[in-house]
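Retro notes - structure team

What went well: the batch runner handled both jobs without manual restarts.
What didn't: labels got mixed up in the shared folder, which is why I'm recording both outputs here explicitly, each with its sequence directly above its tokens.

Job 1
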Amino acid sequence: MRGEGNRMTERKRILLVTNLYPPHARGGAEWVAADIAEYLSAAGFDLQILTSRGTASSARKTSSPPKVFRLLIERAGRRPEDFAGRLRHLILDEYYDPVNAAFFRATLERFRPHLIYLNAPTGLSHAPFLLSLRTRLPLLIHLHDYWLRDFLAHRKLGFLNRSLFNRQVARKESRISLVAVSERVAELYGPFLPPGISLEVVPNGVRPPSMVPPKDDERKDCLYCGRISRAKGLHVLASSSIRCDVLGDPNNEYARECQRIAGNRLHFLGRVDRCRVPEIMSRYRILLLPSLWEEPCPLTLLEAMSVGCIPVASRIGGIPELVAPTGQQPCGILVEPGDAKGLEKAAKSVLEDKARRLRLSNQAIFLARNHFPLNKTLQRIETICRRLMDFRSK
């Protein structure tokens, strides 16, 4: 056993579990995880990341901190159509994947963390989550999406899942903390959580741009940036009369459908390296985000704001909290989800009024720098981690 003195001086160990980790990423949650991991490592924590393999060639660990172990299997494919396949998918792929469970257990035994940090583990099955509940370790769950709500609200298993979760929460006392990336995410989780559990809202943050944004007269009009999927509402944009450049992968049937609807009004730029996105956004006056799903806290929108690109976006999910924070002047225009005419009218109103455009652009930069800076997000996450581990040591 370690002596009391050694325990006082040893570095606290954090195991961060996430479905994907850069350079493999589908959205903002993975890039937020990377920022958090680097920050906590620099703050003196011994941090390791357990994530999925991404591709076969990426099944390796890195030698520089934080260490990344790409061992897990992400089950993100389509559900089988036959009954036996669907049953296997539900039990093994979604509920409890024994392969991922084995990797998770082995990592706990090897690394012996003081804190488990679950960051968007969608697609890894619930094995890491369920095994985390069974340990005596403090647990931080970062809610970038709705995987835990889907677990607790499952149509057939929800009652049992909630009973299990409530029992484990009670057993762990105050050593489980949930972090939601927006008030809207917290609201949607509220009905399914046991009373007394810690749920804090910590919005995503954005780092200051490395370039000076171009002047308004040097910018193009409209940009769409994000995943090319129906939930993001690109077909709504395609149904309007807006001419727009599209930053994202055009090589899927949905993208081709949107192209057929819009004709030459949509110009696909393809995918680019993540580090180039803010600079590209700075070349445009407006970012169009016509989402149809409950966007938790879109990092793309914050990046656009940081370079003065004005959001014209759906009034859904956590988007209004970024575009028009309580007590602040809005930095963009919100429209109803699915309203192509409303989207068109809002974009046109910005493009035709330079004075308004400059005011909104300046406000976007102000909010990004003063209300959603990355350092503020990282400091709050560090505080929560320390609080959880300090509770354990008492």
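Job 2
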Amino acid sequence: MNRFGKYGCNDVFIIVNYMKDFIKAYFNEKSVKQTIHFIEEESFLGTGGGLQYLNGLIGQPFFLTNCDVLVDCDYAQILEAHKKQGNLVTMVCARKNLIIPYGTVEVSKACQILSMKEKPAIEYNINTGVYLVEPELLKLIPENQCIHFPQLIERAMQASHRVGTYLIDESQWMDMGQLEELEQMKYKLEKF
């Protein structure tokens, strides 16, 4: 939240369901610069379904983030790229390099070697769980239905809306769901 506040995000909407009292108590005890608006889901609506409660509350592009990720980049640049591309949604993606520690072999159906690569590197664009969203997307959310945000992105694409990416380096993203990265995240958070 401090990172978003640094770039002028002054209102934070937190959709709560599971452990909502714990989350509210945590923020009531913390001193934060932003105004926090809690929105309570009556039933779990997924990472996208709960956004229906924001319909009519937000009139400009907004950042959507999973609560267990840390993205260390310039949010103003993400907004600039989002507007320049004319996207309904911009997904922040981390360029991840995976090196396979073995030689790989491609084999034909007749069990003949087609090609070999020694310890190949594969590049992927990983969804960081951070998005920049236009309020119009909220109209695509079915009422009172569990739907996840990637499904909303698919709906937007099927409706011919522009959905783009903003690429960052893998070192700029950490996912708290990975134990090793949790330790790195603690270190980075101390620097904020």
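One thing worth noting from job 2: The chain has a mean pLDDT of 87.
We'll revisit the folder naming next retro.
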